[in-house]
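User: Quick sanity check before I run a bigger batch. Here is a single chain. Can you write out its predicted 3D structure?
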Amino acid sequence: MPADDNPFDALERQLQMEDIPVSPVTKAVLKIGSLLPAVWPVSKAIEVLKGHLAADSLNRIHLMLETCVSEVRRHDNEIGRLRAAATVEESQAREEVSRELLLDAARKAESTRAKERVKRIGLILANALVESKPTDADEVEEMMRIATEVSDSDIVYLRELVKIEEPLLQAHNHIPRYDAHMKWEQGFWGGLVDPEIDSIFSKLESYGLVARLAPPNNLNIMADFQNRYVLLRKGLRFVTLIREASAAA
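Assistant: Done. Predicted structure follows.
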């Protein structure tokens, strides 16, 4: 891949050579990418829908790409070190993964209604691409999928659980059951018994972000008890990927 090439040019040539039908989302991303300033490794991946666009789907793609590029630009120093240390092969591999994930992110943004969820797709893509370690495309794809499903309210509760349990998870491979049980009431929900809490955390559990704790062995069957949950590493990873640089610890 020539040094001045970018994922969109390469993708367009590949599609032309293979005579593969191009989806509307792909066409939109190619159009956007061809008009935007380069931001490695996303490379020319954002900012053209500044005109009056009628299609909501294009507006959502624009919002996702704008969020992604804005976040990448906050990591200029890290990007510079990363690019300087990478071999030609490593750079090409990162650009290839960037292109594939960008298209996947655009497809997800196009079909996602809520703007905040669209922004989180862009944040996940940006934060994953600027990490020093090789990008795990499967993990990022799954995290972006989860971002399309969880609501703002779900995120509030997950972030609160991260706030009170992250230190325990950082110190151990997992959070011991007793510690998680005792930490639970430090959340803003306190000792409240509320079916809505179960609804939210059960949803988060379905994505593998948290796990329900078994109730205490001495709990009476007649007791009114709020189910408690423990943070899993996947949940911490998800919250890490949706953080904005200015808000990151």
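The chain has two domains: 7-148, 152-247.

User: Great, the batch can go ahead then.
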